[in-house]
Amino acid sequence: MFSPPDTVAECHNLIDNLSRPANGARKSVVSPYFGRPIATLAASTPEDVEAAVHAAAKAGAAWRTRPLRERAQLLGRLRSLLAERSDEVARCAALESGKTEAEARAGLERGLEVVDFAMSLQAMELGGALDVSRGVRCETRREPLGVVVGITPFNFPAMVPLWMMPIAVCMGNTFILKPSDKVPMTANLLGHFAAQAGFPPGVFSVVHGDQHTVEALVDHAAVQAVAFVGSTPVAQSVYARAALQGKRALCLGGAKNHLIVAPDADLQLTVRAAYDSFTGCAGQRCMAGSVLVTIGEAPELVQGIIDLASRCRLGESMGALIDAAARERLLGAIDRAQAEGARVLYDGRRMAPPEPYKGGYWLGPTIIDGVSPHSECATRELFGPILSIVRVGTLEEALALEQQSPYGNATSVFTQSGAVARRVAEQATSGMIGVNVGVPVPRDPFSFGGSKRSKFGHGDITGTSAVEFWTERKKVTSKWALQSDQSWIS
User: Fold this and answer.
1) 116 and 173 together in one domain
2) Is residue 489 part of a domain?
3) Structural domains counted in the chain
4) Fewer beta carbons below 10 Å: N end or C end of the chain?
């Protein structure tokens, strides 16, 4: 169990491997567990952003010329430090984001898998060459873009930065991380560990701030690419701002993921997967399955999920919501669903956390039945531990619901029929599909990314697709002698 820290930490920027205070407006960082400040930070001004970008640009000239193998070796040292200090990182991430320690540790471990993938790039053929005609050879080289920026959300303080930075820097870019101002402490740990691992000054920087800081980073002439993870409105705004300036951008937004349950689904597997999907990270993740679409009534399935919800213990098996505003938004959504005629089968509003956490932001698992397919609970991302149940008569109706959603992050189907699974995989419009998997996150080298209004830009944020995003293909065509037998290309 957490205890409130004795002191309030100061979160500074990390530029040139040095801690530097920012000069903008100050704010408190509040732990969702207690509702009390655990740190303070100042927003970065345009001058602070200029200092970070200047350091990154200065470091880039030497960094891009280092052999990929040497860059990967430094990542290996960082990986070792993070693994050795995983307890510290997990507790920090949990304290500031509201996750359980187990969830925070799992997020770090998933991030380390991306570090492993980035390190493996030293043994992969990333270019290619071919004799295309007599005496003529074409070759592809991968060139780093230069200074790049990652803008990350509150819900995965370690994992999402580790989805971006390792591949970007391994490919020769210098990277500036702008974390959510709700979770700055874990980002600083990552930055300090990178410095300890031997990253040269300027290769990995951390810049704290607000919307104005983001805009200053996106607008800076030296910044070549921007990756973002967050809500759909902000993802669209950041993408539009970067694209208007001709910059490369990949911005991942929100979701409304469907869990389609066929009549032949394995009951025990489906109950566990559905419950874990909507309650993991208190439902504050873009892969949460928030709409349970049952083909038929499925009373045993619903009762099984209720039984698991009744055994939830706030602060132990499920963490807190990020802030008071999130809790009020979710309470309002439940009230509106009831006003529309939906039934609350299990009411997480009645659950209380342990006494030390009374001041925090808590909501237990909430299960709502009789939800209209066109209601707020069925169509809008709520970002909390709320499961909305929609019943349909056929697979066609279930797929139609999924296809009508403006979001396209993930869809899961639970069935023992290969034909049903294949049909969902072929006809669902989400970018990530699960078959008897409630949280279908691809593992590297397969890439993470959705579709429709869950993603703005092309490609994905991890795996082989990320190698494409963080590099430019340079094509070299060479000829070394005059050929006696000419062709059109020679």
Assistant:
1) yes
2) no
3) 2
4) N
For the record, the structure tokens of 466 come out as: 């990320």
Strand order in the sheet with 386-392: 343-346, 366-369, 386-392, 289-295, 257-261, 410-414, 432-435
Are the C-beta atoms of residues 320 and 33 closer than 8 Å to each other?
A: yes
My answer on whether 173 and 265 are in the same domain is: no
Full residue range of the structural domain in which residue 470 is found: 9-253+454-475
Residues 39 and 120 in one domain: yes
Tell me the mean pLDDT in the region 428-440.
Answer: 97
Dist. CA 27–CA 258, nearest whole Å: 37
Residue 403 domain-assigned (yes or no): yes
Return mean pLDDT, the chain. 96
- Cα–Cα distance, 82 to 426 (Å, whole number): 39
Determine the Cα–Cα distance for residues 221 and 209; give it in Å rounded to an integer. 19
Q: Which CATH number goes with the domain that contains 462?
A: 3.40.605.10
Residue 463 lies in a domain: yes
- Give bridge partners of residue 150 from the DSSP assignment: 177, 227
Tell me the pLDDT tens digit for each residue of 4-46: 888 999 999 999 999 999 999 999 999 999 999 999 999 999 9
Residues contacting 302, CB < 8 A, separation 6+: 292, 294, 345, 367, 369, 389
Identify whether residues 246 and 288 lie together within a single domain.
no
Single-letter code of the amino acid located at 386: I
Question: 238 with 371, same domain?
Answer: no
Confirm if 24 and 211 have CB atoms less than 8 A apart: no
Cα Rg of the chain, angstroms = 24
Same domain for 167 and 35, yes or no, is: yes
**Residue 172: inside a domain, yes or no?**
yes
Strand order in the sheet with 18-20: 18-20, 13-15, 204-206, 174-178, 147-151, 223-229, 248-252, 455-456
**pLDDT at residue 490 greater than cutoff 70:** no
* Residue 286 annotated among the catalytic residues of the structure: yes
**What letter would DSSP give residue 201?**
T
**Model confidence pLDDT, tens digit, residues 258-278:** 999 999 999 999 999 999 999
* 271 and 167 within one domain: no
Q: Is the pTM of this model over 0.85?
A: yes
Which of 11, 286, 312, 377 is flagged as catalytic? 286
